[in-house]
Design a protein that fits this description.
By secondary structure, the protein is of the alpha+beta class. 60% of the residues lie in helices and 8% in strands. Strands 1, 2, 3, 4, 5 and 6 form a six-stranded mixed sheet that branches. A hairpin with a 2-residue loop joins strand 2 and strand 3.
């Protein structure tokens, strides 16, 4: 699209000043420089391009080049060129100040929108209207992925910018919003395009030096984004408590854990009654609780469990027998196994025995 014609008013009294400079050899006054800065600010606010504005000034300079100047021609030329340099520099300074102010306002508006969106604040109808400005159509389903790394990130850091560049290079036409929140990377994408969040997870995992990424389920409407965001955060928190080390976690695959803790009191009662006796063991409950966790993770295969714990099979067998003695439940018995494994998961979710239930 062609640049719209720039009104001559943004030149101000450029021709008159050049004529005076050619006659007297003076430099621009403080008031004249301030006028140029004001014109530059107004031109920026009007949406014109700086390159086109500079071209306008150069074209006007050529058209208004003074005839019959002081002294030698070279001296007059030097004076006029110096004045043009001053004028354009002051004009560009005003233009750039206006642009920086606009950028700061845009950044503030974007951050306010993101906070409202991810915290579920503001009127939902108004939120949906504001979202279109940032490329989101909240009437449709969206999913959110959150990446956590070894350090806290802001939008201007290298890691978020490199991930954003990779996403834009691959999905330039997609409606994607990439930002940071509480030191984590956040990507919001249409729920119908799971490939975007998979690619984000791959890029974020690499850029954060092996950080973990969680992906919430797609949900529809303005409240759907915060719902998916909360699911992703819960997945990261769950991974930390459960020791899950998968690079990418999907909230849809972890739904059993919220179900298990929905009745927190019942789960606490199960942990106390089933695993409480382990506290009587020498060294406390932690070593035997870890043994059970690794045993179940290894598919109840004794040799693999012993290898993961750096124990002999005989030593592992002794631990399993001790658990049986203390709890009355045999980990190798299928009828006892489910109850024990559920109690172990509950202990991890409730941070027992570090916290009393």
């Amino acid at each position: 699209m062609a640049e719209p014609e720039i009104p001559q008013e943004f030149l101000g009294d450029h021709a008159r000043v050049l004529a005076e400079v050619a006659e007297t050899g003076r430099r621009l006054t403080r008031d004249e420089l301030e006028t140029r800065r004001t014109l530059g600010r107004e031109a920026a606010e009007a949406g014109h391009q700086l390159r086109a504005l500079v071209n306008l000034h150069l074209s006007a300079t050529r058209s208004a080049w003074p005839r019959g100047a002081i002294g030698a021609g070279a001296t007059a030329t030097d004076a006029v060129l110096a004045a043009v340099e001053q004028a354009v520099d002051a004009f560009a300074e005003g233009f750039e100040r206006a642009q920086r102010l606009t950028v700061r306002r845009e950044e503030a508006a974007r951050r306010e929108f993101i906070d409202d969106l991810l915290y579920g604040r503001s009127d939902l109808g108004r939120l949906a209207e504001r979202a279109t400005r940032f490329g989101l159509r909240l009437s449709r389903a969206h999913a959110v992925a959150v990446a956590s790394g070894p350090e806290a990130y802001t939008e201007t850091d290298t890691v978020p910018r490199s991930v954003e560049a990779a996403l834009l290079a691959r999905f330039s036409g997609r409606k994607i919003l990439l930002t940071t929140k509480d030191g984590r990377l956040v990507c919001i994408a249409p729920g119908s395009q799971p490939d975007v969040l998979r690619y984000f997870a791959k890029q974020a995992h690499a850029a954060t030096d092996g950080g973990q990424v969680a992906v919430g389920r797609p949900h529809r409407g303005p409240g759907g984004v915060v719902h998916s965001y909360d699911e992703a955060l819960d997945a990261l928190d769950l991974a930390q408590r459960m020791g899950l080390d998968e690079p990418v976690l999907y909230a849809a695959d972890l739904l059993v854990y919220p179900v298990l803790t929905r009745d927190r009191q019942a789960m606490a009662d199960l942990v106390r009654s089933e695993l409480g006796p382990l506290k009587e063991a020498r060294g406390g409950a932690e070593p035997l609780l870890q043994t059970l966790s690794v045993y179940f993770d290894a598919g109840c295969v004794a040799a693999e469990t012993a290898r993961r714990l750096s124990l002999s099979v005989r030593a592992l067998t002794y631990r399993l027998e001790r658990i049986h003695q203390l709890t009355g439940s045999d980990p190798s018995d299928p009828t006892h196994r489910y109850t024990l494994q559920t109690a172990v998961i509950g202990a991890q979710l409730l941070d027992w025995p570090a916290k009393e239930l």
